Amino acid sequence: MNNGLSGLGVLADPSLRDKVADWLLVEAEMLDDQREREWLEKLVSKDVVYQLPLRQTVGRGRGKGFVEGAYHLVESWGSLNSKLAQAETGHSWAEDPQSRTRHFITNVRVGQPRDSRVEVRSNLLLYRTRQDETAPQIFSGERHDVLEQTGDGFLLARRVVYLDTTAIASHNLAIIF
User: Fold this and answer.
1) 59 or 4: which carries more pLDDT confidence?
2) Phi then psi for 31, rounded to 5 degrees?
3) Disulfide-capable partner of 72 in 7, 34, 52, 97 (CB 3.0 to 4.6 Å)?
4) Domain regions of the chain by residue span
């Protein structure tokens, strides 16, 4: 059913949706295979905005609890590049040895293209293990992406990750959602 009931309005045709879903799956594969440098250089726009808003618990009828202007993470291409460069030195305690992740991407919804940009919403379940820990970290939420259409496919221009939890039980957020 494509009658505008999605938060994106009328959804894109199945052909574009399939291309976007394939892009998201390749992106997840790159991140899970620890190919973050390749991800940044091949799939991310130099003008990217990457955010993880802060959430608080609020009463029914008061919205979803995301605090406007407050973030766990606000990243640009430059800051993502700096984080990767630091991790690549081998002297980054946060990610040496590197976390093992598995990105599960579902419920992909793709809006109508506008000016070579496509709005995408998807659900994320991110499973992470570190070192020899036996208890994994699990993050769930919804990603709101904007992809730029290029001659070669898409580039990530914007990502806002709305986590379902208010308290993040993690030693660090040195992972890519």
Assistant:
1) 59
2) -65, -40
3) 52
4) 14-163
Across the beta sheet with 100-110, the strand order is: 66-75, 44-55, 153-163, 137-150, 117-129, 100-110
Residue that the structure tokens 């997840």 belong to: 28
Beta-strand pair 153-163/44-55: parallel
Confirm if 128 and 31 have CB atoms less than 8 A apart: no
Which numeric CATH code is attached to 14-163? 3.10.450.50
Percent of the chain with pLDDT over 70: 96
Helix (H, G, I), strand (E, B) or coil at 164: coil
| Closest listed residue to residue 159, CA positions, set 133, 172, 177, 134 | 177
Taking only the tens place, the pLDDT of each residue in 104-161 is: 999 999 999 999 999 999 999 999 987 777 788 999 999 999 999 999 899 999 999 9
Q: Quick check: 17 and 11 in contact, CB under 8 A?
A: yes
**Residues belonging to the chain:** 177
78: Cα separation from own chain's centroid: 17
Can you give the pTM of this predicted structure? 0.90
Q: How far is the C-alpha of 72 from the C-alpha of 162, rounded, in Å?
A: 11
